[in-house]
Each structure stands twice: as C-alpha cells, then as structure tokens.
Design a protein that fits this description.
By secondary structure, the protein is an alpha+beta fold. The chain has helices spanning 3-14, 18-28, 36-48, 52-63, 71-85, 88-99, 107-120, 124-136, 144-156, 160-172, 180-193, 197-208, 217-239, 270-274, 277-295, 297-321, 329-342, 356-364, 452-457; strands spanning 371-379, 383-391, 397-406, 413-420. It has a four-stranded antiparallel beta sheet, covered by helices on one side. The chain is flat.
C-alpha cells in the first residue's frame, strides 16, 4: 500500500475534492489487497459523487477486512447506496444485518434506513416497527423524525388515533433542525382520517401558514375533505330550526330581558317599597361590604400577577440550568466564525480566562469563510460541549468539538476550546465512521432521541413485527 498516496487521498477528501479522492483511494492498493479503511473512504467519496453502485461495491470490499471492524457502519452505508440506486430489497438486507452488530454505536441510523426501504416495498407494518426502534434508541439525539414516520405508517395501517399520538410526541421532541411544518401536515392527515375535521384544518394551516411547505397530493386531498365536511355541517346548522322560531314566552314588563329581579325588585316584595331612605342607604352599604368580601377583586389580581411571576421565574431558572443563554452557543459560534472571516476582534466570543497565546492559537484553527452548525450538544448549567460540522467555502466539511463556558455576565456563552474531530472522516478507529461523512447524504431518513414517553407511546405497535 502506498502510504504517501493515502495521505494525499485523505487530504483531497477533507477538502471536498471527492472525484480526486476516489481515484487516489483506488490507486493506493492493489485490487487483490484487502484494506478496509481505504475501501470505506473510497465508498464514501463515491457516495458524495452519486455513484451508488460503485459505492456499494467499495463497501463490500471493506467488509472483507475482518480486522478493520466497523461492520455496522459499513452495512448502513451500503444499505444507503443500494436504496439510492433503487434496489430496496438489497438495502433492507444490509440495514437488517447492520442492526445485528452489537458493537455499532448508532444503530438508529440502520433502523431509519430499514424503515424507509420497507416502506418503499409496501411492508408498512414492518416499516413502522423499524421506525419505532429508531425512536427509542438511546443513541438517537432527536427522535422527532422517526416518530413522524411512525405516524405516517399508522395512517396507512388505518390507525389514526395512534398516528395522532405519534405526531404529537414528535412535535414535543422537535428540535430547530426538525421540519415541524411537515409534522403538522402529517398530523392534519391523521386528524382528518379520525373525522376531526376542524382540528385537521388547524393543523394544515399551521403547516402552510408561512408559505414554505407545500402539501403532498394526499395531504391536499385530506384538507379538501375536511373543509367540505365543515362547510356541509355549517349549512345544516343554518337550516335547522331554532328555539327562537317557536312560540314566544310571555314578557315581564318589569324585566324585558327575562331576568326577574336583576334590574327592578319584584312588586310582591313589599318590604322594598316600605323602607325609608336612610334604611335603604344602610342596607346598600351592608350589601356593598358583602359583595366586596365575596369578590376580593384586588386580592385576586395580586395573586394572579404573583403566580405569573413565579411561573416566569421558574421557567427562566429551569432554562438556565438546562444550558440556555443569550447569546446561545450557536449564536456565539456563528459570531466567532464571522469575526474570523471579517478579521475583526474575537475577544467578545472567547472565555476571559484564556491567555492571549491560547486565544491566538484557538482563532488560528478556525477556517475563514466557513459556516458552523451544531449537530449535537451535551449542555449543563455552566459548561457545554458541542459536536460542530463546519461547511468550508470550497464545499468540503470538517468536524470540531467545541467547549463553551458561561460569559462573565453569567447569562450568555463564550468559547473556551476548539478541537478538530478527525473521527468523522474514517481516518481513525472510531466505530461510527459514517456519522460525519454520510449524514448529509441520507435522503431516506430524518433525525430522531430517546425518551421514556416515546417508549410508552410506541408500545401500541406490535412487538412481534420487530426486526431482529
């Protein structure tokens, strides 16, 4: 194997020159030589180029290297390649084998791919089971996508009630990266199937209110059905006779509104007409005190305001302990990268405890004209660690691990350390090689996370359909 050429191929891959990288990886070794890492990276480069069949063949060669490991990641990538090429049967076999690898760190990716392949094959119940497994996987950072797909499966299976609960839970766990418009549209379809037409129209309105999301033909049909049903019900109510059209009741001339005694005392109450003026004044004062004691309007207003303040303080305190701040970690990171690009002062975005030399080294590691996106984050009240994908100006991507601490005002966040994560390009022995190389290529799945509530919800799907 040509080690020097391998280093050049890795550099081309990291720079986003996938065509050159694929050619170099192919020339690194003899065709008969088994090198799992080389064929893995070559397969990734071919996937970037849309050469699905060639990528699947490269992953097959990588799987022959038993010493390389990473069987689950390789099988998941191979399944994605087959699915993109239209061979859903082969894709389903690869994803199923990937779920059996007990050393695979992110099996939810295989379950997501398996759900998509099975759904394309018309095996809806099995697809729903796969999406359920993806949603309850403890390694899944965001389960909303899997829950939404599970809801779609329930709709196809004629179980709109279960579908509604799946979509509701998906909205509860949705992150800024999830498309809540699509989830609301799916919710509308499920509500229409459950004959809850008013709620369905509200869900479709929430999905399309900003003019970005376009309903699918099936969803548009459901919306039309819901609107027609509401229009029909409104017309029937308008034509129905009302009680007011019957025989009118006798009108009390002393109380034309029908609330006897509310505006004028009943004539039979002779005591009212025999009271002296001073007695009526004293009686009115006594009644006023009674009414004040019963109403306690000022006290009620005070208690409501106090309760609202307590709720607001509690919410802010909870958000603070969960790592929220202003500016947020993403805002600080974006501003830092922009300052590097503009050659502006970066001290406002860096921890004050860092020395000048440490700040200079940290800033020098940041590429110019790059766009950072936080993919996952472990956050606490005072410290946070994020996995960040950086889109380079030339089209490539890099992965960093960024540490944050609270700023001097204890409200926002500043960066305390940035380290390049080389595990995403398969150049190290990290088990989850496909995490940073193919996540952006996966057009078959969406992001999804673990929660005890999702596990409770999803027990409605049949366990005997689970893929082993």
């Amino acid at each position: 194997m040509n080690a020097q050429l391998l280093d050049q191929a890795r550099a081309a891959y990291r720079a986003g020159d996938y065509s050159t990288a694929a050619q170099m990886f192919a020339a690194v070794k003899d065709p008969s030589e088994v090198r799992g890492e080389v064929d893995h990276l070559r397969g990734n480069a071919l996937m970037k180029l849309g050469m699905w069949s060639d990528a699947a063949a490269a992953y097959s060669l990588a799987l022959q290297d038993a010493s390389y490991g990473k069987k689950g990641a390789l099988l998941t990538n191979q399944g994605k390649a087959y699915a993109a090429a239209g061979d859903q049967e082969a894709a389903a076999r690869c994803f199923t084998e990937a779920t059996k690898d007990t050393t695979y760190a992110t099996p939810y990716k295989a379950y997501l791919g398996l759900g998509g392949a099975l759904l394309a094959l018309g095996r809806v119940a099995e697809a729903g089971t796969a999406y359920r497994q993806a949603a309850i996987d403890g390694a899944n950072p965001a389960p909303a996508g899997a829950l939404a797909q599970l809801g779609a499966c329930f709709v196809k299976l004629g179980r709109p009630g279960d579908a509604i609960e799946s979509y509701r839970t998906a909205l509860d766990f949705a992150t800024p990266r999830d498309d809540t418009r699509s989830i609301n549209a799916g919710m509308g379809e499920a509500l229409c199937a459950a004959n809850r037409y008013s709620d369905a129209v509200d869900a479709f309105t929430a999905a399309t209110s900003d003019g970005i999301y376009q309903l699918t033909p099936e969803q548009q049909t459901s919306l039309t059905q819901a609107q027609d049903a509401l229009d029909k019900a409104s017309a029937q109510r308008a034509m129905a006779p009302t009680a007011a059209q019957g025989v009118p009741d006798k009108v009390d001339p002393l109380d034309p509104l029908g609330k006897s005694g509310a505006f004028m005392p009943d004539p039979s109450d002779t005591g009212f007409f025999t009271l002296t003026e001073s007695e009526m004044i004293q009686q009115d004062k006594r009644e006023m005190k009674v009414r004040r004691r019963h109403r306690h309007l000022g006290l009620k207003i005070f208690l409501v305001i106090l309760l609202l303040l307590i709720i607001a303080a509690g919410g802010l305190g909870f958000a603070y302990t969960r790592g929220f701040g202003f500016p947020s970690q993403q805002d600080t990171l974006t501003s830092l990268f922009q300052a590097v690009t503009d050659d502006a002062d970066t001290d406002a975005y860096l921890a004050s405890g860092l020395s000048d030399d440490a700040k200079a080294i940290l800033v020098s590691s940041i590429p110019a004209d790059a766009t950072p996106v936080i993919e996952a984050m472990d956050q606490s009240m005072t410290e946070s660690t994020a996995q960040v994908t950086v889109q380079l100006s030339r089209g490539g991507t890099m992965t960093y691990e960024v540490s944050f601490v609270r700023s001097d005002n204890h409200i926002g966040w500043v960066v305390s350390n940035i380290a390049m994560d080389l595990g995403g390009d398969s150049t190290s022995t990290d088990d989850d090689t496909d995490a940073a190389t193919l996540d952006d290529e996966d057009t078959l799945t969406s992001d999804d996370s673990n929660s005890s509530s999702t596990s409770d919800l999803l027990t409605s799907s049949t366990d005997d359909e689970a893929t082993e």
